[in-house]
């Protein structure tokens, strides 16, 4: 399996988009750390950028790469290699290069300037989100045969998770503002990996004290090791389910 | 295997390779159904009708990669050298002409010395010299007792190669007979004439209904 992943990574390195992505992240993180006096403030700004950029790049890049390697996939499938193996190799290749890009672009500066639990939480959240959105992108691209539709689906999903979902949650919270909503908001946040990442990351800092009673409940939960396990668990589900569904549908597909 | 355009030849081949999943029924390779295990593809050399290869790879890289992915350590590189692919290793796949692509496909199909060869319109797009080289190779592999499945519209190419003819139309087998039987039945020697006779006499009824 790693033999094929190796060729996927080789191909990714050659087209230089991931290198540009790494450089972009590196420049953003370095300049934030240079400009802000307070490095934990810089980490917070960085978080906001990471939550928008990482899912977007992971999805669009994975989708386009999938369609571009269609010939490669077809060629490999005439060899004695199963579809499952091919898809997993593609996933491993793409996600590992994107995670590496993130670790160099954001992880390295964070470790240098702000090496503490909040910094580490940012690195963890960013890496997990990369895996999650690569996985969702795979599902979107396997399900849609033509390129335009695949990329369109990926972008719509990104809009949904990064922008629309928050609006929906706010509407719900506003409509039911009289009822105790802590448990439900916790559940709602689990339905969106970006939100989950954001909450987990913010509650590693002291600002949660400013968020009132809900913040306190959250702090209780996410601040403990249970919170870490919960976040990890939900994220793993978000990684595994789409890519497993993609494998299943790819197995039945006519090429 | 012959038949008009769109009669299902390529689809059948792709189903055998597992690239297309049949809506119903089973395909067996050496008594084992192909949906269980992909190892059977080890024994098949496939030359597609339209070879599609990663655009940004060079010929040399492509061959290196395929050899690396497969476990076999002995290669049949006769076609590779006879088509002089070793002199254009640095050409990128994107820049190849249709004919050179066909040469690459052919060289890949024979590379691992498989027991079964599936060649989908092998001579289409090849120049006469290369076409002869390929036919030579097919003959010599046939002599070794290999199963070779060829589709082609250039029936004159198939004359010396064919032992059995399967005629497909609209996804159905119209006839599947040995060459000797067909020759007797039609009194013709050349495959082209044989098929023309069969279509004229045997398929007349079907043709009428269209």
Overview of this protein structure:
The complex is a heterodimer of chains A (255) and B (210). With 255 residues, chain A is mostly helical. Chain A has one domain. Chain A is built from 11 helices and no strands. Chain A has helices at residues 2-15, 17-35, 39-68, 70-77, 83-113, 117-143, 147-175, 182-190, 193-202, 212-223, 225-252. Chain B is α/β, with parallel strands linked by helices and 210 residues long. Chain B has one domain (9-161): P-loop containing nucleotide triphosphate hydrolases (Rossmann fold, 3-Layer(aba) Sandwich). In chain B, the strands form 3 sheets. In chain B, strands 3-4-5 form a 3-stranded parallel β-sheet, sandwiched between helices. Chain B has a two-stranded antiparallel sheet with strand order 1-2. In chain B, helix 7 crosses helix 8. The two termini of chain B are 23 Å apart. Chain A binds chain B through residues 3-4, 7, 11, 14-15, 68-72, 74-82, 252-255, and chain B through 14, 17-21, 38-42, 44, 46, 48, 52-56, 65-66, 68-70.
Summarize the SSE layout with pairings:
The complex is a heterodimer of chains A (255) and B (210).
Chain A: H1 2-15, H2 17-35, H3 39-68, H4 70-77, H5 83-113, H6 117-143, H7 147-175, H8 182-190, H9 193-202, H10 212-223, H11 225-252
Helix pairs in contact in A: 1-5, 2-3, 2-5, 3-5, 3-6, 3-7, 3-9, 5-6, 5-11, 6-7, 6-9, 6-11, 9-11, 10-11
Chain B: H1 9-17, E1 28-29, E2 32-33, E3 44-47, H2 59-69, H3 78-82, H4 98-110, E4 116-120, H5 128-143, E5 147-151, H6 155-158, E6 164-169, E7 172-178, H7 179-186, H8 191-201, H9 204-209
Give a short synopsis of this structure.
Chain A is an all-alpha fold.
Number of E-state strands of chain A: 0
Q: Which regions of chain B are unreliable across 5 or more consecutive residues at pLDDT < 50? A: none
Total number of distinct structural domains of chain B? 1
CATH architecture call of chain B = 3-Layer(aba) Sandwich
List the total number of helices of chain B.
Answer: 9
The counted number of beta strands of chain B is 7
- Termini separation of chain B (Å)? 23 Å
Number of helices of chain A: 11
What would CATH call the homologous superfamily of chain B? Answer: P-loop containing nucleotide triphosphate hydrolases
Low-confidence stretches of chain A: none
Helix content bin of chain A: over 70%
SSE order of chain A in H/E notation? HHHHHHHHHHH
Structural class determined from secondary elements of chain B: alpha/beta
Helicity range of chain B:
25-40%
The rough form of chain B would be described as globular
Q: Largest interface, and how many residues on either side?
A: A-B, 24 and 24 residues
Strand line-up in the sheet with most strands of chain B? 3-4-5
Number of domains of chain A: 1
Which CATH class of chain B applies here? Alpha Beta
């Amino acid at each position: 399996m790693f033999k094929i992943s190796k060729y996927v990574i080789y191909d990714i390195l050659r087209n230089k988009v991931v290198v540009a992505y790494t450089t972009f992240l590196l420049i953003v993180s370095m300049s934030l750390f240079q400009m802000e006096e307070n490095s934990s403030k810089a980490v917070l700004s960085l978080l906001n950028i990471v939550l928008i950029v990482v899912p977007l790049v992971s999805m669009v890049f994975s989708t386009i790469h999938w369609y571009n390697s269609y010939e490669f996939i077809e060629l490999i499938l005439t060899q004695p290699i199963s579809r499952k193996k091919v898809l997993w190799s593609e996933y491993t290749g793409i996600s590992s290069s994107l995670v590496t890009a993130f670790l160099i672009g954001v992880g390295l500066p964070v470790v240098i300037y702000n090496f503490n639990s909040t910094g580490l939480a940012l690195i963890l959240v960013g890496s997990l989100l990369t895996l999650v959105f690569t996985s969702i992108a795979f599902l979107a691209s396997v399900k849609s045969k033509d390129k335009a539709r695949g990329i369109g689906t990926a972008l719509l999903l990104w809009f949904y998770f990064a922008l629309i979902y928050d609006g929906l949650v706010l509407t719900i919270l506003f409509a039911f503002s009289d009822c105790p909503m802590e448990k439900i908001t916790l559940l709602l946040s689990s339905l969106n990996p970006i939100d989950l990442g954001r909450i987990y990351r913010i509650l590693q800092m002291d600002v949660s004290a400013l968020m009132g009673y809900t913040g306190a409940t959250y702090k209780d939960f996410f601040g403990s090791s249970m919170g870490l396990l919960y976040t990890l668990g939900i994220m793993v589900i978000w990684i595994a389910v789409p890519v497993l569904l993609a494998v299943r549908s790819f197995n039945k597909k006519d090429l | 295997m012959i038949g008009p355009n769109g009669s299902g030849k390529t689809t059948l081949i792709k189903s055998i390779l597992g690239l297309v999943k049949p809506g119903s029924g089973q395909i067996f390779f050496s008594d084992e159904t192909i949906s269980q295990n992909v190892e059977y593809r080890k024994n098949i050399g496939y030359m597609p009708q339209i070879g599609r290869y990663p655009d940004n790879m060079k010929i040399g890289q492509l061959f290196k990669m395929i050899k690396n992915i497969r476990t076999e350590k002995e290669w049949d590189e006769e076609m590779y050298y006879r088509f002089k692919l070793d002199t254009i290793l640095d050409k990128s796949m994107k820049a190849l002409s249709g004919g050179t692509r066909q040469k690459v496909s052919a060289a890949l199909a024979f590379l691992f010395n498989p027991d079964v060869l599936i060649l989908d319109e092998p001579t289409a797009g090849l120049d006469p010299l290369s076409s002869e080289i390929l036919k030579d190779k097919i003959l010599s592999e046939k002599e070794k007792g290999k199963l070779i499945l060829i589709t082609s519209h250039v029936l004159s190419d198939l004359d010396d190669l064919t032992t059995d003819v399967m005629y497909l139309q609209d996804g159905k087998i119209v006839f599947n007979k040995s060459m000797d039987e067909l020759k007797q039945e039609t009194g013709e020697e050349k495959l082209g004439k044989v098929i023309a006779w069969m279509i004229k006499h045997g398929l007349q009824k079907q043709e009428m209904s269209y």
